[in-house]
Design goal:
single chain, GMP Synthetase, Chain A, domain 3, three-stranded mixed sheet, 54% helix
Length: 96
């Protein structure tokens, strides 16, 4: 039999992502992209910063009233973002 170097495109992309350590950046980009889709316009317009690191989604808002309201909806935010991304990435939400 002949020795081949055949790999699927998905395998090659996965290898490149790992080789160049791009996974964290791609994850952050996914979360930024889905944030506008899963959240209400009022929340998106009052979001000044969105950061993701090691399973923690940090959301900075310019409205204390909205921040207080979202404190009670953290589980819903985690569920909505994880469903939109298609993976169980977000474990905790921190509001500032």
């Amino acid at each position: 039999m002949r020795n081949t170097n055949e790999h699927s495109l998905g395998e090659l992309i996965h290898e490149l992502i790992n080789a160049y350590r791009l996974k964290d950046g791609l994850t952050r980009a996914k979360i930024d992209q889905v944030w506008e889709k899963v959240m209400d316009k009022a929340i998106v317009s009052r979001t000044t910063e969105l950061r993701f690191d090691k399973g923690v989604l940090m959301i900075r808002l310019n409205s204390a009233v909205l921040r207080n309201e979202l404190e009670y909806k953290k589980a819903d935010i985690i569920k909505a973002v994880n469903e939109a991304v298609g993976d169980d990435l977000v474990k905790e939400v921190v509001l500032r």
